[in-house]
Amino acid sequence: MIFMAEMDEHKRAVLVICDGLSDRGKLTPLSAAETPNMDYLARNGICGLMDAISPGVVPGSDTAHLAILGGDPYNDYPGRGPFEALGGGIELEEGDIAFRANFATVDRDWTILDRRARRSGSRELAEALGMEIDGVRFIVKHTTEHRCALVMRGRGLSSAISDVDPHGPGRVLESKPLDESEEARRTADLLNKFVKRSYEILSEYQTPANILLTRGAGMFRRVPSLKERYGFRSFCVAGSALYKGVAKFLGMDVIEVEGATGSVDTDLGAKADALLSRIEGYDLGFVHVKAADSRGHDGDWEGKKVFIERIDEELIGKLIGLDGYIILTADHSTPVSIRRHSSDPVPVLIHGEGVRVDRVERFDEVSCGEGGLGRIRGVDLMPIIADYIGYYRMYGV
Amino acid sequence: MIFMAEMDEHKRAVLVICDGLSDRGKLTPLSAAETPNMDYLARNGICGLMDAISPGVVPGSDTAHLAILGGDPYNDYPGRGPFEALGGGIELEEGDIAFRANFATVDRDWTILDRRARRSGSRELAEALGMEIDGVRFIVKHTTEHRCALVMRGRGLSSAISDVDPHGPGRVLESKPLDESEEARRTADLLNKFVKRSYEILSEYQTPANILLTRGAGMFRRVPSLKERYGFRSFCVAGSALYKGVAKFLGMDVIEVEGATGSVDTDLGAKADALLSRIEGYDLGFVHVKAADSRGHDGDWEGKKVFIERIDEELIGKLIGLDGYIILTADHSTPVSIRRHSSDPVPVLIHGEGVRVDRVERFDEVSCGEGGLGRIRGVDLMPIIADYIGYYRMYGV
Question: The domain containing residue A188 runs over which residues?
Answer without folding.
Answer: 84-219
